[in-house]
Design a protein that fits this description.
The chain has 17 helices and 20 strands. With 506 residues, it is an alpha/beta fold. It folds into 3 domains: 121 residues, Sulfate adenylyltransferase; 189 residues, 3-Layer(aba) Sandwich (Rossmann fold), CATH 3.40.50.620; 176 residues, Rossmann fold. The strands form 4 sheets. Strands 1, 2, 3, 4, 5, 6 and 7 form a 7-stranded mixed beta sheet that branches. A hairpin with a 4-residue loop joins strand 13 and strand 14. The protein is flat, with a radius of gyration of 27 Å.
């Protein structure tokens, strides 16, 4: 694409595609210049060379595949041999243009998908997101850094006192400036939203050496080694000469990796130092992420010996006690299992106590108002559950309790509903209403099983369509062995025991 100068009509008529989250994060890194020497997504020649030698086709060392897959029908009109007919517009999830891609290489990858490679350039009115002043490209940040050594730290969790002590020690070791790189492309390992993570890091700023803080769209690949290699490359692009390793000590040609020390709190003088230097009776080890979450869930203040008060305030705001935090209660089971009846009973009890704002998403009501037009194919069933999961997560995002009771026969769709709730900062409780098929058929209030057995209805869950029994249910109930009131009590008692209700509704 000669100089990237294209007629407006070429850009206007070009096909568009919203990349998947990992690809979108890579695209943003490419546009920022955070993956030098890459200027776009890699093609077949580079990928084949990397697999053989760890280098690009031109001999440049490069360790991590940076690729894009696009549905076949989207790229069907593109012609890699014609610069005016190989433009693909890449958008954000809402459809706003982010970049133009010069599709110089297109090849089939998986069923219905093609790899697309070529340089990218920014398009549209720019990206959006919180903390725009911290989302700065590497060249701007390098210009701000002092001469000499720079300690890079990838901060994907809040900085408690042990982590702050690690950073201070590493900075003293290399006698250099500190560069904190905060990933903002996905929730952190502990589920905190990127914006909350940034706020918690800023809250700890006065507890650390002089530091430059930058927000970067880094997203994990699900591979510890590749993640470490990519992070090292990005840290080097931003000017880090050393990197405090949280995972594998792999640099891949990037900054020198520093291994963190094992620290503990010394009760004699309130300092954090090497654990082996502290007598056992005076030693306090750092709290684990699970222990921190448990304290927050129960509304117990984080101890000041472990967490600076300003950081604790941010975490408490983001993760209030469970009894005031939103939660999705997702009941799944066969038609006639009693899901809706139990859900309505729970809603009635909570309406009496006024303890929770309740949103009831019953299967039949949802089909009429939210998923009208959908059939009962696997794709439509999954779409129905995803829609329910999205609405439930939004209700829970604002502190409500969402009760859902679709059949939801497929594990993948249920997992999506759980992910949506967690992404909204809410809890998720999966209740399997495991009433046997024979009992459900005896009830058959709608006559669906009878029609399915007579061949008048196809795609009936439990008859000619499978129900994938949950292996991750938080609670299992069977309404053939207990009555509805007992089932409602079981669910309410579970919610109370897990902290989602402040006091037992009676």
């Amino acid at each position: 694409m000669d100089g990237w100068v294209l007629p407006d009509e070429v850009l206007r008529d070009a096909p568009s595609y919203a990349p998947r989250p990992r690809e979108l994060a890579d695209l943003q890194l490419l546009l920022m210049g955070a993956l030098p020497p890459l200027t776009g997504f890699l093609g077949r020649a580079d990928l084949a060379s990397m697999a053989r030698t760890g280098r690009l086709a031109d001999g440049t060392p490069w360790p991590v595949p940076v690729t894009l897959e696009v549905p076949e029908h989207v790229v069907a009109s593109l012609d890699p041999t014609n610069p005016l007919k190989r433009v693909l517009i890449l958008t954000d999830p809402e459809g706003a243009p982010i970049a133009a891609l010069d599709a110089m290489d297109i090849w089939p990858t998986r069923h219905g998908l093609c790899g697309v490679a070529g340089p990218v350039r920014r398009a549209g009115d720019g990206e959006h997101g919180a903390f725009p002043h911290m989302r700065r490209p590497p060249d701007e940040i390098r210009a701000l850094l002092p001469e000499g050594r720079v300690l890079g730290v990838i901060v994907d969790r809040p900085l408690h006192r042990p982590q702050l002590a690690q950073i201070a020690y590493a900075a003293r070791t290399i006698a250099g400036h500190v560069l904190l790189i905060v990933p903002v492309a996905e929730p952190g390992p502990d589920g905190l939203a990127p914006e909350v993570l940034v706020r918690s890091v800023l809250a700890a700023r006065d507890r650390m050496p002089a530091a430059t803080i930058v927000a970067v769209p880094l997203r994990g690949r699900g591979n510890e080694v590749l993640d470490a290699l990519l992070r090292a490359r990005v840290a080097a692009a931003y000017g880090a000469t050393h990197l405090l390793a949280a995972g594998p000590a792999i640099s891949g040609g990037g900054p020198r990796a520093l291994l963190p020390r094992e620290l503990a709190y010394d009760g004699r003088d309130g300092q954090w130092r090497a654990a082996d230097d502290i007598p056992p009776r005076h030693r306090r080890v750092p709290l684990t992420p699970a222990e921190i979450d448990n304290l927050l869930d129960r509304g117990v203040p984080l101890p000041e010996w472990h967490t600076p008060p300003a950081v604790a305030r941010e975490l408490t705001r983001a993760r209030p006690p469970r009894w005031v935090r939103g939660v999705v209660v997702f009941l799944t089971g066969l038609s006639g299992s009693g899901k809706s009846t139990v859900a309505r009973g729970i809603a009635d009890v909570l309406a009496e106590t006024g303890e929770r704002t309740v949103t009831l998403l019953d299967g039949d009501v949802v089909r009429r108002w939210l998923s009208a037009g959908l059939g009962f194919s696997k794709e439509d069933r999954d779409m129905n559950v995803r829609r329910i999961g999205f609405v439930a997560a939004e209700a829970a995002r604002h502190g409500g309790l969402a009760l859902c009771c679709p059949i939801a026969p497929y594990a993948a769709a249920r997992a999506t509903a759980r992910q949506l709730a967690h992404a909204a900062g809410a809890g998720f409780v999966l209740v399997h209403v495991a009433t046997p098929l024979a009992v459900c058929e005896q009830r058959d209030r709608k006559g669906l099983y009878a029609r399915a057995r007579a061949g008048q209805l196809t795609g009936m869950t439990g008859v000619d369509d499978p129900y994938e029994v949950p292996t991750d249910a938080d609670l299992v109930i069977d309404t053939s062995t207990i009555d509805v009131d007992e089932a409602v009590d079981v669910v309410l008692n579970h919610l109370a025991a897990e902290g989602w209700l402040d006091q037992r509704a009676t």
